[in-house]
Write a structure and sequence with these properties.
about 575 residues, binds 5'-O-[(S)-ethoxy(hydroxy)phosphoryl]adenosine, 9-stranded mixed sheet, 28 strands, alpha/beta, Rossmann fold, 5-stranded parallel sheet
C-alpha cells in the first residue's frame, strides 16, 4: 500500500499543515532540520535502527544507527561551535560521498550555520567563485581535495578554517588548517540545538545560469515541510524501506532527498561512494536489498547501454519503487525499466530553486511514459505564454512552466543577487526557466530549457562559465559553448574556438584546452569536443549567436538570422 492513497483525494483540501502536524511542528516554534533528521527519529523509538549504510570504492562498509547519526552530528556541531563559527556563517562541505558529508551537513544545521555543499570534483576556479560569493567562513574537506583550496587560500581572507577530516596524524598543518577526525573525536551526547525558526537560513546551493556567475540559492529550515512530505508521497518512503538515492549531496537532489527527505522519514539509507558501473550498481542493490531507488536518466541510459545479460546475474527482486530526476526521462527508459525490473521509473521534475519535487508521477497513478506527470498536491503549476505570461486556454500548447510561489521549500533569494531573483517572477508566477506543454488529462510534457544552460547528465553547466575559462587559455581568442546531443548524457558540452594568431589547431592543443577547463572548472564542464573555426557567428552588435551553432549540432532549422553580422 503506497503512502499517497489517492492523488485526487490528496489534491482536494490539501494543506501543508498535514506535514506540520506529522512533524509536530507549530508555526512560530523552533524548527531545525538537523534535529528532525536525527534526535527526533531517536525519540520516535528508532535510535537503534540503521540510518546510514555507507560503502566506499574499496568495498569497505560503515554503518550508523540513528543514535550514531545523532551523536556524531552533535560532535561535529560542537567542534564547529568551539572553533568560533557563528550561526548563519557559511560552512562549506567539499567532500566525496563519505559519512562526514551526510552527518556534517546535519551538524552544521544543528549549530545554526548555513551548509554550503560543493561538488568535490570542482576545480579551484569553480570553487573560488562560489566560496567568494558566499564569503564562506570554514570549509570541511579531505586531504586529497585540500590542495585545490590551498591554491586559492590567499584570495580568501574571510575563510578562517580549512578543516581536514582525514589529515595524517602528527603531520603539521599550515596556518588556518585544522584536523578533525570524526571516528576519534570525543563523542558529544548532548548538544544544545541552535533555535532556528522557519525562516532561518539552512542551505546554500549553487546553480548555473546562462549569463553571469553561479547563483547561490538560499533555503530555510521550513523547507523540511515539503521535503519530508514529497519524500513520503512521491518517493513513497516507508518504515521498512532500504532507500538508495544515487545523487551526490554536492547537488540539490543529494541534500533534499539524499539527506533531509530520507532521514526525516526515518528510513535506512544506503550510500555508494564509487564510480558508476552497471555490475557494481546491481550488486549494491542485491547486497543491501534496496527497495526504493531514486536515480537519474543518465544513469538509467547507461544501464540500458550495459544491456540485460548483466541484470540476470543479480537478484533485484527487493526493488519496490523507482523514481528519476534531473533531465528528461525518455519514454524508452520508462518502458525498458518496466520490462527489466518489473517497475517503471517514475519521473519527477523540480530544481535547486524549488527545493522539493514540483511535478511528478505518483505511485498508483496512470503512467504516461515520457511525461513528467502532475503537480504535487499544494502546488499550482501551469504553462504560460512566453510574452503575455498568461496561461493558455487550450491544452497542448508549448509555453513556460509557471508555478504559484509559496510552497515551503521555495528558495528565499539568490545570495547577494536579489535582482536576478526578482526576475524569476512574472505576473505572480515563479518561472523555473523550462518549457513544457500540458495534455488534456493535466500531464506535463517537458520540451526543453528556456535558456542556453547545458544539462549534461543531469548537471547544469553554464556556457558562460566555460567560455570564460576557455578565454583564459593562452591560445584561445574567442569561444562559444553549446550543447551537443549524446545518447547517455542527453547533452554534452561542445566548444567552438577561434585561435589567436600564431596558434595552429592540432590534437595536442585540443587536449590541452580540454584539460585546462577540466582542472579549472570540473570534469562535467570540460568540452567533450572542440571545433576550431575561423569566425564565430555574431549579431551586428557583436553578441555571439549560440543559437546558430546549437541548431547546427542538433540538425535543426537555423531560423531567423536577420541580425547576423556577416550576412
Ligand atoms: C531539468 C535538479 C526534464 C530542468 C533537481 C530543471 C528536468 C533543471 C527534470 C534543474 C525532469 C529536472 N525532466 N528536465 N524530470 N528534472 N530537470 O537545479 O531543466 O540541478 O530546471 O535540480 O533540470 O536542475 P537542478
Amino acid at each position: 500500500m503506497s503512502n499517497i492513497k489517492s492523488y485526487h483525494e490528496r489534491i482536494e483540501n490539501f494543506d501543508w499543515k498535514i506535514a506540520e502536524k506529522e512533524l509536530d511542528y507549530e508555526p512560530g516554534n523552533v524548527i531545525n532540520i538537523g534535529w528532525y533528521c536525527s534526535d527526533r527519529i531517536c525519540q520516535m523509538g528508532k535510535a537503534d535502527k540503521p540510518g546510514l549504510i555507507w560503502e566506499g570504492s574499496t568495498g569497505v562498509e560503515k554503518r550508523y544507527t540513528y543514535n550514531d547519526i545523532r551523536i556524531n552530528s552533535n560532535t561535529i556541531a560542537q567542534f564547529l561551535k568551539d572553533l568560533g563559527i557563528n550561526p548563519e556563517d557559511r560552512v562549506c562541505l567539499f567532500l566525496d560521498k563519505i559519512p562526514e558529508l551526510y552527518i556534517g551537513f546535519l551538524g552544521i544545521l544543528k549549530m545554526g550555520a548555513i551548509a554550503q555543499p560543493l561538488f568535490s570534483a570542482f576545480g579551484d576556479e569553480s570553487l573560488f567563485i562560489r566560496l567568494d560569493n558566499a564569503q564562506t567562513t570554514a570549509i570541511i574537506t579531505q586531504k586529497k581535495h585540500a590542495p585545490k583550496v590551498r591554491k586559492i587560500m590567499d584570495k580568501m581572507p574571510y575563510l578562517k578554517h580549512l578543516i581536514i577530516v582525514d589529515a595524517d596524524p602528527g603531520k603539521p598543518l599550515a596556518d588556518r588548517e585544522v584536523a578533525f577526525d570524526l571516528a576519534k573525536a570525543g563523542k558529544v551526547d548532548h548538544f544544545d540545538i541552535y533555535p532556528t525558526t522557519a525562516e532561518s537560513p539552512s542551505v546554500l546551493h549553487y546553480t548555473s545560469g546562462t549569463t553571469g556567475q553561479p547563483k547561490g540559492v538560499k533555503h530555510v529550515h521550513y523547507s523540511l515541510i515539503s521535503q519530508y512530505l514529497t519524500a513520503k508521497w512521491v518517493l513513497d518512503l516507508q518504515d521498512d524501506d532500504i532507500y538508495w538515492c544515487t545523487a551526490d549531496p554536492g547537488w540539490v537532489t543529494g541534500t533534499s532527498y539524499g539527506i533531509i527527505g530520507a532521514f526525516s522519514n526515518g528510513v535506512t539509507q544506503c550510500v555508494l561512494d564509487a564510480g558508476f558501473s552497471a555490475d557494481n550498481w546491481y550488486r549494491f542493490i542485491q547486497k543491501h536489498r534496496i527497495t526504493m531507488w531514486y536515480s537519474a536518466p543518465t544513469a538509467i541510459r547507461s544501464l540500458m547501454k550495459a544491456g540485460e545479460e548483466v541484470i540476470k546475474k543479480y537478484d533485484l527482486s527487493s526493488l519496490r519503487h523507482l523514481a528519476s530526476v534531473g533531465e528528461p526521462l525518455n519514454s524508452e527508459a520508462v518502458i525498458w525499466s518496466e520490462r527489466v525490473f518489473g517497475k517503471p521509473f517514475l519521473d519527477t521534475y523540480w530544481q535547486t530553486e524549488t527545493g522539493s519535487i514540483m511535478i511528478s508521477n505518483y505511485p498508483g497513478m496512470k503512467i504516461k511514459p515520457g511525461s513528467m506527470g502532475k503537480p504535487f498536491p499544494g502546488i499550482t503549476a501551469t504553462v504560460i505564454h512566453p510574452e503575455t505570461y498568461e496561461p493558455f486556454n487550450e491544452t497542448g500548447k508549448i509555453g513556460l512552466i509557471a508555478i504559484r510561489p509559496g510552497w515551503p521549500a521555495m528558495m528565499r533569494t539568490y545570495w547577494k543577487n536579489e535582482e536576478t531573483y526578482r526576475k524569476k517572477f512574472q505576473n505572480g508566477w515563479y518561472l523555473p526557466g523550462d518549457r513544457s506543454s500540458i495534455d488534456n488529462e493535466g500531464y506535463f510534457w517537458f520540451v526543453g530549457r528556456d535558456d542556453d544552460v547545458i544539462n549534461t547528465g543531469g548537471h547544469l553547466v553554464s556556457p558562460f562559465e566555460v567560455e570564460s575559462a576557455l578565454l583564459e587559455h593562452l591560445a584561445v581568442a574567442e569561444s562559444a559553448v553549446v550543447a551537443k546531443p549524446d545518447f547517455v548524457n542527453m547533452e554534452v558540452v561542445k566548444a567552438f574556438v577561434t585561435l589567436k594568431p600564431g596558434f595552429i589547431a592540432s590534437k595536442d592543443l585540443d587536449l590541452d584546452i580540454m584539460n585546462f577547463v577540466r582542472k579549472k572548472l570540473s570534469p562535467l564542464a570540460m568540452p567533450q569536443e572542440i571545433e576550431f573555426i575561423d569566425t564565430l557567428p555574431k549579431t551586428r552588435s557583436g553578441k555571439i549567436m549560440r543559437r546558430i551553432l546549437h541548431a547546427k549540432e542538433w540538425g535543426e532549422e537555423i531560423g531567423d538570422t536577420s541580425t547576423l553580422e556577416n550576412d
